[in-house]
Amino acid sequence: MLRHGDVILVPIEEFLESKDEKSINLKKGKKVAAQNGKFILALGEATGHHHELQVCEADTMTVFEELFGIEDLKVLDITQEAPLVHIGDDHNTIKVPAGKYVAYSQREYTPERVRRVVD
Description:
Blueprint: E1 2-4, E2 7-11, H1 12-18, E3 30-32, E4 38-43, E5 50-54, E6 60-67, E7 70-78, E8 82-87, E9 94-96, E10 99-105, E11 107-109, E12 114-116
Antiparallel strand pairs: 1-2, 2-10, 3-6, 4-5, 5-8, 6-7, 7-10, 8-9, 11-12
């Protein structure tokens, strides 16, 4: 597992094992193209800061509004090591090894519901 602020990346096999599942049907999600060589994994609504993964053209991201009870879950297929950068300078850049990952924002409990953490 990799953590970058409130963004969590888990190798897909480890994620599926934790959910007692065998696969994710990517056809049920929305495939998103990289914008200027980047995938935005999380956007700070209050601060405008964001976490961006700098990728190559062959890399893919599929976004699910909700899957396994997690809102805005992303499935990433990274073909070569990619830097994960925080625009806003709060976190150091980390290198994400090539592989398939599930990415989502940290969640917190409130009396009303479980929700993702808001920057």
